[in-house]
């Protein structure tokens, strides 16, 4: 039996991509899951997938959804309060929501910059802050979703890159403060993953093979791009009892890509969609 069985988990940004795959994996492992996202339709679809994945547990009420924008404090608090009410506590917080926007530095707007930092960093900080009293009671774990771009210099998407570099350092700093409370905090740093976010890279989202074709030949391990499942597995590991002595770490789940440097420096330019 998984060490996560029976745990209560929040996964933000779980209406698609890595978040959805992570919520489904926790459901399969017998967890209670709160799914969060802005798109109500996709969020309900993800919750239904969780119900199917967790059907062996026999508890269809183990999954709830909270729709809303995580930059709003009332939404963040509702996520925590609804989880406490539904499941009686919180064991794992997966902070996964985010946005990639922007382009060349000379085209960067203050609005775009502020929006990215608000979503990818500020909301992380204050969601974690509000979650600490819940997690202290259970000696719980936090996993933030960062990016391999947090440590690689390159061109374009500056606000995104800055927000992910800050996320890594947030994890290291909070490990010092939260460790004495019995709370662990780590990050996964994904490579380019086959999710909706690649539309910002001007890849054709209607072509399921385009990311493999672009990333695969340049990935040392396996010669293919990461799917969401590889990232979900790493998140679940860091949240589990098997990682009980790991905190303040940022784990690159990238098939060895960072050994080659920043993919935006050595990949061919993607074709416009």
TrEMBL record:
<dbReference type="Pfam" id="PF13561">
    <property type="entry name" value="adh_short_C2"/>
</dbReference>
<dbReference type="InterPro" id="IPR036291">
    <property type="entry name" value="NAD(P)-bd_dom_sf"/>
</dbReference>
<dbReference type="InterPro" id="IPR002347">
    <property type="entry name" value="SDR_fam"/>
</dbReference>
<protein>
    <submittedName>
        <fullName>Glucose 1-dehydrogenase</fullName>
    </submittedName>
</protein>
